[in-house]
Structures
1.
Amino acid sequence: MVVGVALPVARYVAKWVPQVDRAALHAGARASQIITRGGLAAGEPVFTRDGSITVDFAGGVVALMSYVPGAPLQSLPRDQPLLGKTLARAHTIAGTEKRRGPLFPFLVDPATPGSTMEPWVRLALASVQAEYRSLPPLTWGLLHGDPAPEAFRLDPETGRVGLIDWAAATRGPLLYDVASTVMYLGGDTAARSFLGVYAAAGPLPTDEMGAHLSAMRRYRGAVQAAYFAGRLARHDLTGIADEEENWKGLHDARDMLKELGMPALRRRDGAGS
């Protein structure tokens, strides 16, 4: 079946995913719509004539998104203030609340597929689960889910920065997005400029960032470990040349968790390496 869309003259991006990821694509499209209508370019979806976001295509589903012009930002110090300011702005658009609740429970679960790839993985997932549940209510809002520098696009003609790739969007503790960006920037010290700008412009209380960023960084590291362990268990080579890249991702997550002082890994001294 062909479903038509009415398009003005402009540039668009077509995003295809397998049927299993339909819900995530819809959630990301809705999030990008909210963010765009809040004044920040995010690649909002183009709806079909019958009001749908996606169309079945080639064994999966495809969505058409508005193109966000510009070049990706980098982890360089010169780009960090833009990263901090843009993420802070995104976090203020959809409102915030103080609460507790699960965050990606299907990933951070000691029984998740791939958790037996190496002995430390299950221990790490159980450890971050317990630590996360012990945290007080945190500031929740609309998460990007994976705000790596390349998701931020700087338009050289206007100086405006957009934020794309909302496929992992969900509501959750905003500190998770901060921890994700810190991970991509190389840690607290390397990300000092980003953290300073975000703290000044964002909705998170200073005491929340100071008290709980390390815990959320461990949680983010566990999500990373679960992601690559799952890819290894499924023999998933999407986007990579061979399985060694999945093993490297898993071991990078382990090393990050060790550096962050995860007790489960200290006790085993890196078992499974």
2.
Amino acid sequence: MTNMKCISCNSEEYKIVYDGPIRAGSYGKLTSNNFKVVECEKCSLTRLEQFPEIHYENEEYRLDYNDTSDIHDYFNNHDHEQTPRINKIGIEKFRDKIVLDFGCGGGSFLDSIKGIAKKTIAVEPFVGYHDSLKSRGHEVYSDIKECAHLNSTVDIVISFGVIEHINEPLEYLISAFDVLKTNGKTYIETDNLDDILVKLKFKEFEPFYYRTVHSYYFNTKSLKELALKAGFNEVFVGHRHGFGISNTIKWLNERKPGGVSKLDFITPEIDFAWVQMLENNGMAELLHFELVKS
């Protein structure tokens, strides 16, 4: 195994948790070679042993993983995701606030709070979205390194589905910390390594879950420890699950994703209980953290 130190605890002791092909784009696209996924034996922070070279600023990334780079397709694919996110946080948290979305994609979340926030700032490497973001009234940057003049001025940093893509997630969290005012907050969502489907450990799910563009994989413990190391004084741990029980049943039965389609015999009451159980027991698909700079 490659000799490396854990960025969180500095341990050099890793164990291999997966060795095989991983997703290299949208569903069905797999690597031709095997990748090792390794877990730190001390703090459980998990990563690809070797990071492939990914160019998020180029159109090819969007074409590989979304099959399109068109801004309107982005809206169609992601607008619906914003309502549960806002419900989880509370729309009132954004009233008259300066909000920076760190890895905003086409800006669906920023659009959803534009009328209530004082100012919306988009940080997005793919320049193909920049003109559209600017036309909708967002201040736009390609990289957080361009935002040094914003240090200690931002009320809220949003990071949804981004930190897992970063080769240096500790530096990413430090950058978020630096732009925040005192008592500012970062809301972060990322895939949960304790997701019920991961814990079931069946062979067809692993090459779907692990992917070339996800350098790191987090559970509650590893993300909390990394956030504290980045300087955040308070870490509030939460979870969010966006799929009903039908998706899990279809994975177990058909060995492929079922998405949001529902089995006829599943009632809303069953789905509600399923989601509540997973979120309350830490087995939801997403970690949802609130990090405070106090």
3.
Amino acid sequence: MKGLVVACIPAYNEERTIARVVVEAQRYVDKVIVCDDGSTDLTGEIARRLGAEVIRHERNMGYGAALYSLFKAARELDASAMVVLDADLQHNPSDIPRLLSPVVKGEADIVIGSRFLEKEGGVPKYRGLGIRLITDFAKGVSYRDITDAQSGFRAYSRRAINSITPSEQGMGASTEILLEAKEIGLRVVEVPIRISYDVEKPSTHNPLLHGLDVILSTVKHLSIRRPLVFYGVPGFAALVVALFFWVWTLQIFASTRQIVTNIALIALGATLVGLMLLTTAIILWVLISVVREAKYGA
């Protein structure tokens, strides 16, 4: 592949491992960029001394914010390919060529290093269960064939680099990227990797909070990207329920000349909820259509 190939590394207080990750990554790419996400140790200084370009966040802003800065840096360099990996040695830099290969061959825009394509992916059972649950949720709104929606070891083509702008600051950015990629028609493939949790300072994210953060983030982006489905379908269902109770109310009134208050209130409430949801769906759909046309020129 002609052009600049970069490795991008989000890092927070990883002074014990950042040197090895930078040096090993430099074997496979033209340039290494490290986002020092508010570290209080020597992470950024070590990376800079070893020849990496360092982007410094003055405070810890989160994984998604680090990805945003790294994507921006890769765009400014007009990189032809970019690979993102962790700074704590959970990802093996020697797998970088494997991830880059489909991008180099023009077979994919995003390559995910999956921990589940092979039986010995290195994932503890309790972590694997949570990751699979999140992946199943993400598959319902993005790519149905993926096996590891939360893998942070990924490669991106120039088209993906120029198209994707993560907005989530937390761990939900990984799923957000898949939603955005699906929306604009990027090609996604997976390759098998092994991950090591036997590192000196593994991830400190609470698995339950991590999963909740990802799910809430996915729901938020789904509501924004597909408002007619997210709001319109429940709104239509509410109006169907309202119609049933209105008919029931009228039937009772026709036979008894009395209005059953509870049934009439349910009908009225369902009508209001349905109309509000449908109105929200239409307004958001119009606004998002205008934004998409301005962004993509479609």
4.
Amino acid sequence: MATVELTCNLSSECQGAFIMCLPGGDLCQTGTTEDGAGGRVAGSDFSIPAGSTGEVSVALTDLGQQVVSGPSGFSAGVIVDLLNYGSVMNTTGSDTGSFSLTSTDPTSFPSGATAGCGGTVFAGPDTSCPFAENVQQAYLNSVNQGNGGTVTAVSPVTGQTYTMQCTDGSPVVCTGGTNAVVEFYR
């Protein structure tokens, strides 16, 4: 659960929805789309009295639980949809807006991952975060068509190059090397 502070500048009560999504996606929906775009990480309905500021409790989705449990920050697109007015704030296509999500819930990772490497990258028990980040970058540079495929990446820990077989969908799951598992949302 996260909390955001919203101000109602109207002469009547502000009612609507507050939604946080993976950055760069065209859609913001629960779960993920077939090509991995969008992806809701948190959301809540709200009601703020006219001319006042209130705190809104925002529930994290399973995806949100995973991305906020990493050691570093996470950027998200924000949509505020106001009843009778429509979207009054939408940062999903830009870098404006700044919100911070943290969770006091137990750490949550995608199936097969045992560590969060920051943002949307996760590593299995025999995999370092620097290698996981290199696998994600190799995937985004070469495959990135939603069709899965094979990528090679260097491990900064061992200095060796490993071949990883990646699935399509979201999360992308890459396995290979020496029992390495890398998962990330694209």
